[in-house]
């Protein structure tokens, strides 16, 4: 069975991470993504972390399944190729600064003259309005402006900490993919094309909807220590390995105390109810840290799971990549690379009962599909040779 987006074609001008990972997600769902790259060097993401054997995890992660065409879009004949492609695609994506696509002649108002139902979609830094709109932006800037760095660091009075390399980009990519998918549905149901904008900043604000909603009630941002909620956090076993517990429902508190052989905490007035446990957070964290330090991590996990207490291991990447649950759901899977052999890649987090979803092909070589795509547009081999001689492709 074809993927749910089978038949959808995307002309992808995005570079680096936020835009490319969004179109990777759509390609996993079956969309045909044509990646437009600069003639000589292509997406600069090709060089980030490039290994001597040609392996580039950065580019592979953000560009699998796609077809690559090289075009000098600043030339008249290059623009002609783009306009021909636009007539036969559903979506044109970019993550340039606002205004770049207009200067190239590829903005929504121009492209809809070639395809009235075209959808254009921009992964921007700051959104379409405001004083920062035309400034450059990258992941770390989105994290900083969006507030998550202070939240992660412990609160407004603590040193800020970035989360992980690319968090703002990855969250922005997921929201971008949602925006594009929604615009496709709107076109199919309402018959309209339109422009979509999803920004790093907006995505970071949306990611923290709970925290910001709480803050805006009284304009007060409380501290956010790592173990702010003593029963919704992590602890370390006697072997130095850590686990998490997540007791949002008070019904699990007695089970936890029994597993830890600390039934005394059930009658301790400091920990009698959720309010008291939070008010005496530091005392409870101390007691739980001492309790968990009595056995190895995996032994605790077996006991906790048997008692139906929500819990899980704290993995490093080695653990994630070998976790039985991760592998069973193909959240990590394998592809055959033409020059590097079998490679392990991150799969799609989306599963569907009937239609196919997931990675199909490794990332393309620069310009790998240029000739195939031009032939599909009706160019002859003689035309293609001429375009190459003119350094258009």
Low-confidence segments: none
Question: What is the level 1 CATH name of the largest domain?
Answer: Alpha Beta
CATH superfamily of the largest domain: Crotonobetainyl-coa:carnitine coa-transferase, domain 1
- How big is the Rg? 25 Å
Strand fraction: 5-15%
Strand order of the largest sheet: 3-2-1-4-5-6
What order do the helices and strands come in, and which of them pair?
Elements: E1 9-12, H1 18-28, E2 32-37, H2 57-63, E3 67-70, H3 76-86, E4 91-94, H4 100-104, H5 108-111, E5 119-124, H6 139-146, H7 148-153, H8 167-190, E6 195-199, H9 200-207, H10 209-218, E7 232-236, E8 242-246, H11 253-259, H12 264-267, H13 274-279, H14 281-292, H15 297-306, E9 311-313, H16 317-322, H17 324-328, E10 332-337, E11 341-346, H18 370-376, H19 381-389
Parallel strand pairs: 1-2, 1-4, 2-3, 4-5, 5-6
Antiparallel strand pairs: 7-8, 8-9, 10-11
Helix pairs in contact: 1-8, 6-9, 8-9
Describe what is shown at a glance:
With 393 residues, this protein is of the alpha/beta class. The chain contains 19 helices and eleven strands. It has two domains: 9-209 and 329-389, Crotonobetainyl-coa:carnitine coa-transferase, domain 1 (Rossmann fold, 3-Layer(aba) Sandwich); 232-316, formyl-coa transferase, domain 3.
Question: How would you characterize the overall build of this protein?
Answer:
The protein is α/β, with parallel strands linked by helices. It has 2 domains: 9-209 and 329-389, Rossmann fold (3-Layer(aba) Sandwich); 232-316, formyl-coa transferase, domain 3. The chain contains 19 helices and 11 strands. It has helices at 18-28, 57-63, 76-86, 100-104, 108-111, 139-146, 148-153, 167-190, 200-207, 209-218, 253-259, 264-267, 274-279, 281-292, 297-306, 317-322, 324-328, 370-376, 381-389, and strands at 9-12, 32-37, 67-70, 91-94, 119-124, 195-199, 232-236, 242-246, 311-313, 332-337, 341-346. The chain has a 6-stranded parallel sheet. Helix 1 (18-28) packs across helix 8 (167-190), helix 6 (139-146) packs across helix 9 (200-207) and helix 8 crosses helix 9 (200-207).
